[in-house]
Amino acid sequence: xxxxxxxxxxxxxxxxxxxxxxxxxxxxxxxxxxxxxxxxxxxxxxxxxxxxxxxxxxxxxxxxxxxxxxxxxxxxxxxxxxxxxxxxxxxxxxxxxxxxxxxxxxxxxxxxxxxxxxxxxxxxxxxxxxxxxxxxxxxxxxxxxxxxxxxxxxxxxxxxxxxxxxxxxxxxxxxxxxxxxxxxxxxxxxxxxx
Length: 194
Prior knowledge:
By secondary structure, this protein is an alpha+beta fold.
């Protein structure tokens, strides 16, 4: 018999996609996210999932993790030529892009804030807090979007992997300001960027 750790989500957890994904607690303890044997994939709930940390019993489990400890997905990033492959890359890659911008930036005549915020998937809570605190004249959100050149895509193929950044015009949560769209398009043309 093993002692299994029950979990709750911090933000949005896609249970089916997270199944059998390695996780790591802040103290370094590793485990794997799994479902109860009889739990159905369709409509899977966190109540029927657990984290297996390899503990033989409750006493051993309490030595490894405590109630309230948090874990993150512990998946590697793999380089494939000039591409990076990894699950859960969207926010990680946005942070990498901002850090690259900061490293390349020489002089900036304006006050510039780079915000790495939390809870984007559950209502942009961290970004909203930062926006109220900073009160910027302009704000630019850096995130990922789906590419249109995958098999079965219903889109027109304007966003393609490796062909430069995308400029969001609108989606179900935002209509972007036309002046910002124009500035980004002009900058892309000046840099000969598709």
